[in-house]
Amino acid sequence: MKLQASGGVGSLDDIAAVRDLGCDGVIVGRALYEGRFTLEAALETATA
Hints:
Layout: E1 4-5, H1 12-20, E2 25-26, H2 29-33, H3 39-47
Parallel strand pairs: 1-2
């Protein structure tokens, strides 16, 4: 089963935590829209 995190993901630390939990994906729409981080930084964090 694929697992995706959504809601309350507002920082690169949140993305790293979701990654470390083994989730397959994360939804970062609002944080990305508000400019809290760049898409490049999010992808780099998610795949580190």
